[in-house]
Amino acid sequence: MKRPVIFFLALMVIAAAVIVFYLQFTNPQHKAADENKQAAGSGRAYNKELAFELYQENCADCHGRDGRGIMSNPALTGTRFSETQIISIIQNGLGAMPAIDDLDENQMHQIAHFVKHLNN
C-alpha cells in the first residue's frame, strides 16, 4: 500500500515541477525581463524606455517613429544588420545617412538593440 502512495506523490511532484518550468519560460513577463538584461550582447543593461527616447531623438525624423521609413529613407524593421553593424553605421554613416557623433558608447548600444528588435 505504501508504494502506490509514494509513486503517486513522486508523480505529483514531477508534474508540479514541469508546470512551474513551463510557466516560467512561456511567461511574456519573463521574456521582457530577459530582453531588458542585455543590450547588444555587450553586458550593458538594456533600458527600453531610454532606447526608445534615443531612437526618437536621433533616428525617427528619417526612419519614422515606428522604424518603417519615411519617403526615400529606408525602413529599419526586420533589419539584416547585426547590432555591431548597426553601431558601425551609427558611428560612420551609410549612403545618405550621416554619422551620428554625439552619442556615447552606451547610447549607441541602446539604439542598436532597439533597432535590431523592431517588430520582433
Name a few traits of the molecule:
120 residues; mainly alpha; Cytochrome Bc1 Complex, Chain D, domain 2; 6 helices; 60% helix; elongated
Give the SSE layout.
Elements: H1 2-26, H2 28-37, H3 48-58, H4 60-63, H5 83-92, H6 105-116
Helix pairs in contact: 3-6, 5-6
Characterise the protein shown here:
The chain has 120 residues and is mainly α. The protein folds into two domains: 1-37; 39-120, Cytochrome Bc1 Complex, Chain D, domain 2, CATH 1.10.760. Helices cover 60% and strands 0% of the residues. The protein contains six helices and no strands. It is elongated, with a radius of gyration of 22 Å. The relative contact order is 0.13.
Number of strands: 0
Structural class: mainly alpha
Computed CA radius of gyration, to the nearest angstrom: 22 Å
The share of residues in helices is: 55-70%
What is the N-to-C succession of helices and strands?
A: HHHHHH
Biggest pleated sheet: none
Per DSSP, what share of the residues sits in E-state strands of 2 or more residues? Answer: under 5%
Low-confidence region ranges: 29-33
Short structural description:
The chain has two domains: 37 residues; 82 residues, Cytochrome Bc1 Complex, Chain D, domain 2.
